[in-house]
Amino acid sequence: MSPLIMGLLIGPSALAGMLAGAIASGMMLAIMMSNAGGAWDNSKKYIEIEGECGGKGTQTHKACVVGDTVGDPFKDTSGPALNILIKLM
User: What pTM, to 2 d.p., does this model score?
Assistant: First the structure.
């Protein structure tokens, strides 16, 4: 609805600016989500495999499991979104 209103009421240059801003901010958000999801996933693996910070069963491991629960959807959704944005640009 916003592109239609911007194009009709304000003009094509405002519409182009809004679309460019939406693409740029979406690209930054997708890259952040992809990197953050990978970091959360790797932190859990690091504690489980290397036994750092006390290994499994500690409060640190429990926190990393919660982070991994958030990180997996971050990685799984931002990858396809980045692919579409790169093709769009």
Answer: 0.66
